[in-house]
Specification:
The chain is of the alpha+beta class. The chain is 22% helix and 32% strand. The chain has five helices and ten strands; from the N terminus they run αβββββββαααβββα. It starts with 12 loop residues before the first helix and ends in a 5-residue tail after the last helix. InterPro entries: DUF2470, Haem_oxidase_HugZ-like_sf.
Length: 234
């Protein structure tokens, strides 16, 4: 008999790190005491500029050809929520030297460790976990989809609140979409002196970006059904 496994409703820590690396528009490279801001990732993300590999790959390079380095990334919410910093990711290892931000080809980095820091704490991610993880199909489009929802369809956010359990209390100031991934949407509920985040899982995880729209509509349809059952106007 196959063991029972609950359907995933949110990304793993490795999935979050991979998504941040894939869609990063900038990063900070700290090496040999020098901090360099790299802001020209040209939509290819960090993994298009830095090739992460295990220490045993490619033989043993002379010590003078690699230097200890730290890559720093920040994950910022694309919507105007309170406290827009969603996470920090730090990747450490040995970077091929000399490193130049002007190179058009990727630079090799011998992987040391990756650290994810967010509201849930600190997690360490291995290279094997990153390599086993598929890129979230929603990651590249998340910012555009969330800003479109806020700017052009803001009336739908109160409708989604019908799905929140327990219901937000009367002290809530506003609700703003915070994040979207293959598993669902996260809303940030803001109060005068605090906030809390709630997830609304999709009926099915998204495997192709074309499925994201129908899954959002499925959430809205569920919210309308709740409204009608309660005798409320959507």
């Amino acid at each position: 008999m196959r063991p029972f496994s609950a359907r995933a409703t949110q990304p793993t820590r490795a999935e979050r790190v991979r998504s941040i690396l894939v869609v990063a528009h900038s990063m900070t490279v700290v090496s040999d005491g020098v901090q360099t801001e790299v802001r020209r990732l040209d939509g290819t993300g960090a993994m298009g500029h830095i090739h992460l590999h295990a220490p045993t790959e490619g033989g043993h390079a002379p010590a003078g050809e690699r230097v200890p380095a730290r890559l720093e990334f920040t994950d910022i919410a694309p919507t105007p929520v309170r406290d827009r910093l969603r996470a920090r990711v730090t990747v450490t290892g040995l970077l091929a030297a000399p490193y130049s931000t002007d190179t058009e080809s990727s630079t090799c980095m011998e992987f040391g460790q990756a650290v994810l820091e967010d509201a849930e704490g600190r997690s360490f991610i291995t290279l094997e976990e990153l390599e086993r993880t598929e890129t979230d199909p929603v990651a590249a489009c998340e910012a555009g989809m969330l800003t479109h929802l806020v700017d052009d369809h803001s009336e739908l956010v109160p409708l989604l609140l019908r799905l929140v359990r327990p219901h937000p209390d009367r002290g809530m100031v506003r609700a703003v979409p915070l994040a979207m991934d293959r598993y669902g949407v996260t809303l940030r509920l803001e109060y005068p002196r605090s906030h809390r985040d709630v997830r609304l899982p999709f009926p099915k995880p998204v495997t192709e970006i074309d499925q994201a729209g129908p899954q959002i509509h499925a959430l809205l349809a569920a919210a309308r059904r709740v409204s009608h059952r309660n005798g409320l106007l959507a």
